[in-house]
Amino acid sequence: MSHYSAKFQCFSGCDGSYPVTTAIYRCPKCGGLLEVKHDMAALKDRSAAAWMRLFDERYMRTSWPYGSGVWGKREWVMPMVTDDAIVSTGEGGTNLFWAERLGKQVDVPDLWIKQCGNAHTGSFKDLGMTVLVSVVRHGMLRGELNPRAIACASTGDTSAALAAYGAAAGLPVVVLLPRGKVSTAQLVQPLAHGAKVLQLETDFDGCMEIIQKLAAEGLVYLANSMNPLRIEGQKTVAIEMVQQFDWEVPDWVVIPSGNLGNASALHAGFEMMRELGVIQRLPRLLVAQAANADPMYQAYVAGNEIVAPIVAKQSHASAIQIGNPVSAPRAMRALKAMNGVVEEATEQELADACARADRTGLYTCPHTGVALACVFKLREKGVIQKSDRVLVVSTANGLKFTEFKRGYHEKAFPELDSRLRNEPVVLPANVDAVKAALA
Ligand SMILES: *Cc1c(COP(=O)(O)O)cnc(C)c1O
Ligand SMILES: [Zn+2]
pLDDT for 165-186, tens place per residue? Predict the structure, then answer.
């Protein structure tokens, strides 16, 4: 396949490039972030129509690895990786849910939810992890990489994905988790896959600081989204959602954000489609943050280019409880390019949004609740118009967050008003008692 190619480059524009199988996570010259650059001239050897046709022919079919929503677009993602290196669980291909009832209630009739949580490990993290682990295996097969272990700091979903892909590839995995700050399901996933699970008495930002030191010393290969390989897989969400609308661009794309890797991944996907002529305009980006962990929102409101780190407070949206987002510079660029807006949601607002959405047939994780609450607010403010097509990226499966949902419906969180709660009724096994309860 491959006269197509991609390499690492400095995000801030230092010259020099590095093979994607190099174990580096920052620019060797300035210490800034890295990004993957594709040979765009080579990709222009096909017309936009030809790319769309190729992607449509492969989409959700059985010919391995093209049935994966990521590897079906492999020329745009990581063209050099050979078949024998690919570690795939059949990523992507997640459905778009038309939130018809919810949309009517909030006066956004064209509201759609991209169900990225309907994935092998229950979150969008699979999309990036298949690329990262495949590149590692590609490098190992060629003697270019020899990591002792692949490792990440995680708010729960990254570690679940890394552990699964590592196990599928037979590679050792180490995960650093903030103790007591991930859900039971998220803790059990890496345990089940045989990863070394280290629970630290800190928050995500504390774990991230330590993992970066381990990676800098070459003790582990870093799998956090600071590693731009993750972004290449995650950007396929943008491509896939446009494909699912017959290559039409929505007006808004909404993403609940913590470390801000995914916001920049969406931009990368849309920008690549624009450059290759598949689309003519970019949608507007809505970065949705939890008010308890809102460094990007604070920078946005203050008109600052730089996102200053904060100490994140406890949030039910635990996967985005991050105060020092590593990908902030990337996300700032995405925000500018996509005429973006940052909004935030309180704990009460996110819980209400989840409960409301669930009543209309969704089953939303708290992060998707943050995104929905921000959509409701921007519609009320008139920033989102009634006629706009709004696409919310649901980042994880609600089934991972049983403690949150149960606590809401049993009114176990004193700080939350569980006004949409629905408690089970306990009865004796007696027809009359059941009849009475139904009356
Ligand atoms: C990782 C994650 C996010 C945040 O993504 P970032 O790229 O860190 O901004 C949001 N929601 C869920 C469920 C996640 O797992
Ligand atoms: Zn640099």
Answer: 999 999 999 999 999 999 999 9
- pTM for the model: 0.98
Task: Round to whole Å and give the CA distance between 346 and 365.
Answer: 15
CB of residue 157 inside a 6 A radius of ligand 1? yes
Residues 6+ apart with CB under 8 A from 70: 77, 88, 91, 92, 127, 130, 131, 233, 236
| Ligand 1 pocket, residue 400 CB under 6 Å | no
- State the ligand closest to the CA atom of 256: 1
| Pocket probe mutation, ligand 1, options 155, 226, 262, 374, max atoms within 8 Å of Cβ | 262
Query: How far, in Å, is the centroid of ligand 1 from the Cα of 228?
Result: 15
Q: Which atom of ligand 1 is nearest to the CA of 225?
A: 7
257 part of a folded domain: yes
pLDDT digits (tens, 9 = 90+) for 42-67: 999 999 999 999 999 999 999 999 99
Range of the domain at 298: 96-120+235-409
The number of CA neighbours under 13 Å toward the Cβ of 356 is 21
- The DSSP bridge partners found for residue 151 are 174, 222
What is the pLDDT confidence band of residue 2, given thresholds at 50, 70 and 90?
A: confident
292 found inside a domain: yes
Query: CATH number for the domain including 240?
Result: 3.40.50.1100
pLDDT band at 1 (very low <50, low <70, confident <90, very high): low
